[in-house]
Amino acid sequence: VDKDAELVAQWNYCTLSQEILRRPIVACELGRLYNKDAIIEFLLDKSSEKALGKAASHIKSIKNVTELRLSDNPAWEGDKGNTKGDKHDDLQRARFICPVVGLEMNGRHRFCFLRGCGCVFSERALKEIKTEVCHT
């Protein structure tokens, strides 16, 4: 597997449902990203053993995930202008950025979230702030 493609998948797709991440987005203690509705469906439908269920087997209740407060990237265009399907997608352009230093959340830089409030920062910003108190 191409390492860049794997990073893009981790940062753009739900670990459980493999669908594109859409708000509300939650994260587990392992740092995996999920669509909140996929986690709720997983927790409600324990009867069926799904192959992808192993990716969330450590999640026993909704309290095991934190809803993330992500900052939108103003430079991200998404599907705008892609009416014919002939648009080139820049895989390094990310939907979300660090609100402190402006790094894009594309897999090249480490990101952290505060479990109390769900705010997401780059690791570089968290080192500069030197505190784990929400600043918003």
Could you characterize what this model shows?
It holds the Pfam family Rtf2. Interacts with DDI2; probably also interacts with DDI1. This is Replication termination factor 2. 19% of the residues lie in helices and 15% in strands. The N and C termini lie far apart (39 Å). By secondary structure, it is an alpha+beta fold. Strands 2-1-3 form a three-stranded antiparallel beta sheet. A two-stranded antiparallel ribbon has the order 4-5. It folds into two domains: 1-68, Zinc/RING finger domain, C3HC4 (zinc finger) (Herpes Virus-1), CATH 3.30.40; 69-78 and 88-135, no CATH class. It has three helices and seven strands, in the order H-E-E-H-E-E-E-E-E-H. The mean pLDDT is 83. Strand 6 (111-113) and strand 7 (120-122) form a beta hairpin.
Write the layout of secondary structure elements.
Elements: H1 3-12, E1 25-28, E2 33-35, H2 36-44, E3 65-67, E4 71-72, E5 96-97, E6 111-113, E7 120-122, H3 123-129
Antiparallel strand pairs: 1-2, 1-3, 4-5, 6-7
Q: Which parts are unreliable, with pLDDT below 50 for 5 consecutive residues or more?
A: none
| CATH architecture label name of the largest domain | 2-Layer Sandwich
CATH class of the largest domain: Alpha Beta
> So how many helices?
3
- Overall pLDDT metric: 83
Shape: globular
* Whole-number total of structural domains: 2
Structural class: alpha+beta
**Major sheet characteristics:** 3 strands, antiparallel
What portion of the residues fall into strands of 2 or more residues?
5-15%
